[in-house]
């Protein structure tokens, strides 16, 4: 039978392993509670008083700090549903982070590899977080949010349900994000608005100057030309040199679910000025 808090006094100093599967060199801190359906990869460290329940799989060489709660059952889950949490390799989850189990037997809440989830962050059911994502302190993701690879989210930010944050995007601290954030862009504010291209972030991941300039021009066409989505995409295809990053940017726009964050300020920039 799976053991949960509160556990009996006579076992207060005992590490609780209730049938969980652990790889080699796993370390589990004092008073941690590990559910019977949990799988922990090699070299992962679980801090004191962490609670890991549900059908959870944690990858190799992760660090789960003290008092983290993973796969607590969401309040809308039906009794007996096998909601799951999947965490990749080399991810670090800081103190007091909470990650809800998914809603629905065939669904999942997923965190990628090489991520940093800072203290007091919260991830609601069925969120998908990509690889190399950084979430600063007290970021809150509502249900069904998707955060793509290498996005950076500033502290005290809240993300509305079903919102998508594009890869290499940067969200400023204390923002309220209620619309999709296109890849490679920077947004900030309440509600969050677009402020430009994340040039420094792109440079750090090896996107060269020519591609960064192309994406900057794509941003201008999208936000500063006054064109609608369809026409803006046509102009991008007509005027800009196609590269992998630009194609990704355009595909994101074609498939966005909640509209995109509006521009912080408008300009009279003409299309001739973006070339």
UniProtKB/TrEMBL annotation:
Lineage: superkingdom: Bacteria
Calcium is among the record's keywords: no
InterPro entries xrefs: Acetyltransf_C, Acetyltransf_C_sf, Hexapep, Lipid_A_LpxA, Trimer_LpxA-like_sf
Enzyme Commission no: 2.3.1.129
Family matches, as Pfam families: Acetyltransf_11, Hexapep
Name under which the protein is recorded: Acyl-[acyl-carrier-protein]--UDP-N-acetylglucosamine O-acyltransferase
Lineage, highest ranks first: Bacteria, Bacillati, Bacillota, Negativicutes, Selenomonadales
TM region positions: none
Residue stretches making up the UDP N-acetylglucosamine O-acyltransferase C-terminal domain: 180-261
Keyword field: Acyltransferase, Lipid A biosynthesis, Lipid biosynthesis, Lipid metabolism, Transferase
GO molecular function, one term: acyl-[acyl-carrier-protein]-UDP-N-acetylglucosamine O-acyltransferase activity
